[in-house]
Design goal:
The structure holds 2 protein chains of 2 kinds.
Chain A lengths: L2 H16 L20 H15 L5 H5 L4 H11 L1
Helix pairs in contact in A: 1-2
Chain B lengths: L13 H4 L1 H9 L6 E9 L4 H13 L2 E7 L5 H6 L3 H6 L3 E5 L15 H25 L3 E5 L12 H4 L4 H18 L3 E4 L1 H8 L1 H4 L2 H7 L8 H15 L6 E4 L10 H4 L11 H15 L6 E7 L2 H8 L13 E5 L3 H11 L7 E4 L3 H10 L15 H6 L11 H4 L1 H16 L4 H7 L2 E6 L6 H10 L12 H9 L3 E10 L2 E14 L2 E9 L8 H16 L3 E6 L11 H4 L3 E5 L5 E6 L10 E3 L9
Helix pairs in contact in B: 2-3, 3-12, 6-8, 16-17, 22-23
Classes of the chains: A mainly alpha, B alpha/beta.
Chain lengths: 79, 602
């Protein structure tokens, strides 16, 4: 799966979780850019990502995620 | 996928991921929601538990507002004055504690007395909390028991040794169960069974605990919500009441019309036969709960009966209330069946191995439960069981006798057909009624009736058993229950009236009747009794209220038929009525009421 495909899939997940079809993601997107992205929805997001990409993250990996680009890195490394 | 299919197990992650959209769609589905207030007192993070419980309850037609305690503040919220929770006025308090909340476990060096003392100390913490909640809030309490621990210091010995965590949690769970056995309005949520059924290995997720302080894996949360929602919907009368069962390849293997009854797969001879017989055992056990068993089969009637009459069949024709064996669409048969039994179509669970039949019923009979049976008979039991359609919160003596009551009703219908004059039919029933103020023996049945009667119910007010007991003892209220029997049998308590005395006027806040005694003039007998009671109290007028719901259209004109005058009508169809008791003439001439000689209720 290349980076574009990962971003496409991530966009679908974000749109589902935030119930907002207008969301577009970039490498630099952070929680500050999406209004409803709080610590609780963050949990839902990670869980949805794990389910959709069929990966399982450890605590070490998810602790220091800074933006969507880093999340995509983590997914690519876990596939 | 149809919206409500999301709520048939196994639950997909979509419930968590697409919760916002699902919530919106459920709210817009046009259902006639019951509004309730649920307080979740958590010993760990509860955010997603609240969201999922919200969805599952909406699926059951219950629209809730929620109170959530701050993180792990369940005990403080319950034990100390809490203006926010008091102002919230919860209908339900759900205490979501887990083994993460056990204060201390025994040490291997503790003497037995110290282990017992530790157990009592832990239990006291909970009992004090439950007692205080019961005193402070007139509502239902739902309490988790404990799931087993993720690790075992001594291995298997943890179960037998008094110091073992497995042993300690088991003792706590038994003590919780004892509390539930002796306290009304207190219901145990069996987290222990649920986590075992889900798989403890997957249930316990240290990642979720350390990262988010969820005491279980996230994908398990919909299962938890389903399980808790089942208790709540059962309390509010939203259980299913009847099963409609297919025959060929559902109750037995093979097609009776093609293969002949002698070649069906059932009984103890083969593994396949055993699987079908085990399924029949499971279904038959539901009669103890008062679930009504029925058949809807595409067969000629004689073939259906030939199959059911096989000597090794667990379910026999006598176990069923109605057997519809014909070639009409199954959805039509289900609607006819509901009408004949005076049940709502959504009170049925439709069980059929054929996906096409399930699809037709899902489309044509919205609200009926249609489990995904799968195509292997060994999986049928689980497909029905995990839905929780018949979740039991209270069991009254009436429940076990229900099939018999409905059977008597069928006998009455046949008798009715033999009469040309309805009045002489009613007199031939030799009806006797007991109509008296609420008494403790009937409190549980009375509360149950207020929570499950939807059709013949003027105000659709729901009451807990404690509220019923309170009104029975309060002189400001006039309460009457009506129990009706006839030559075919006893119908039990079938009608209730509650009035609030306002000077020389009585406001009727509840009037309901079970549909199994429709058109028996019982409502007139109740009216006569109410008028007599009012006369004794110096009440001069009775005021009646009708609040329309999606289900109680049959009583729109009830007060008019009772001779009331309409005072007002709201745009939503709510009406207010009044009757002056001056010169009241009794209306019932066919039921003998409170007769001294009666043998019916001895």
């Amino acid at each position: 799966m290349n980076r574009t495909e990962i971003f496409e899939k991530l966009t679908d997940i974000f749109r589902d979780v935030f119930d907002d079809e207008g969301i577009t993601l970039t490498e630099a997107t952070t929680a500050a850019d999406i209004e409803d992205w709080d610590s609780l929805t963050h949990i839902t997001l990670l869980s949805a990502v794990e389910e959709e990409f069929e990966v399982k993250f450890g605590m070490k990996a998810v602790q220091n995620l800074k933006n969507v680009g880093e999340l995509a890195d983590l997914i690519a490394a876990s596939l | 996928m149809e919206l409500h299919d999301n709520f048939i197990p196994p639950f997909s992650n979509d419930l968590l991921v697409k919760r916002k959209r699902l919530r919106r769609e459920l709210l817009e589905s046009g259902a006639d929601f019951l509004d309730k207030r649920v307080a979740i007192l958590g010993g760990s993070t509860t955010h997603d538990i609240k969201d999922m419980l919200d969805l599952f309850l909406l699926h059951h037609g219950i629209r809730c507002t929620f109170y959530e305690s701050e993180y792990a503040q369940y005990w403080q919220d319950a034990m100390f004055p809490n203006p926010a929770l008091e102002a919230f006025q919860p209908d339900i308090i759900y205490i979501h504690t887990t083994n993460r909340n056990v204060s201390r476990y025994p040490l291997l060096s503790d003497p037995p007395e110290a282990v017992d003392a530790l157990l009592e100390e832990e239990l006291d913490r909970y009992r004090q909390m439950w007692d205080r909640l019961a005193r402070t809030y007139p509502c239902v309490i739902i309490q988790n028991n404990f799931e087993y621990p993720d690790w075992r210091l001594q291995g298997n010995r943890e179960a037998s040794d008094i110091h073992g965590r497995v042993n300690f949690l088991t003792r706590l769970n038994l003590a919780f169960a004892q509390y539930a056995q002796t306290h009304d309005r207190f219901y145990l949520h069996d987290l222990n069974y649920l986590s075992a059924s889900y798989g403890l290995e997957r249930w316990c997720d240290p990642f979720c605990w350390h990262m988010y302080k969820y005491a279980m894996a996230l994908p398990a949360i919909p299962y938890l919500a389903n399980s808790v929602a089942n208790i709540i919907k059962s309390l509010y009368g939203k259980n299913k009441k009847a099963l409609a069962l297919d025959l060929d390849n559902t109750l037995w293997g093979g097609v009776v019309g093609d293969d002949g009854p002698e070649n069906l797969q059932v009984g103890q001879e083969t593994p396949m036969g055993q699987a079908y017989s085990a399924f029949q055992d499971y279904l038959k056990a539901h009669k103890q709960l008062g679930v009504l068993l029925n058949v809807i089969s595409k067969n000629d009637p004689e073939n259906a009966l030939a199959g059911l009459n096989r000597p090794d069949m667990t379910l026999t024709p006598e176990d069923f209330l109605l057997i519809k064996a014909n070639w009409e669409p199954k959805s039509q048969n289900l609607l006819d069946m509901a009408r004949e039994l005076s049940l709502l179509p959504e009170s049925f669970v439709f069980v059929d191995d054929n996906p096409a039949e399930r699809e037709i019923v899902r489309r044509q009979v919205p609200g009926a439960a249609v489990p995904e049976l799968g195509d292997q008979p060994e999986d049928y039991i689980r497909a029905i069981d995990r839905l929780g359609c018949f979740e039991v919160t209270t069991l009254s003596a009436d429940d076990a006798a229900r099939t018999e009551m409905y059977r008597q009703n069928a006998a009455r219908s046949r008798a009715e057909a033999a009469f040309t004059d309805y009045g002489s039919y009613l007199r031939s029933l030799e009806m006797e009624a007991e109509i008296l103020p609420f008494s403790p023996m009937y409190f549980s049945r009375i509360a149950q009736l207020t929570n499950k009667s939807n059709q013949f119910n003027l105000t659709t007010r729901r009451f807990t058993q404690a509220e019923i007991a309170g009104m029975a003892e309060d002189s400001r209220y006039v309460t009457l229950y009506g129990r009706l029997s006839d030559k075919f049998g006893d119908n039990g308590v079938v009608s209730l009236v509650i009035g609030e005395v306002q000077g020389d006027r009585l406001d009727v806040i509840l009037w309901l009747m079970s549909c199994r005694v429709l058109k028996r003039d019982m409502e007139y007998a109740m009216m006569d009794a109410l008028a007599a009671r009012c006369g004794a109290l110096g009440v001069k007028t009775i005021r009646g209220f009708y609040f329309p719901t999606a289900k109680n259209g049959m009583v729109r004109d009830f007060y008019e038929k009772q001779g009331f005058q309409k005072l007002s009508e709201d745009p939503d169809g709510s009406t207010v009525w009044e009757l002056s008791l001056a010169g009241y003439e009794p209306k019932n001439h066919v039921i003998s009421v409170n007769s001294e000689e009666s043998e019916a209720f001895k």
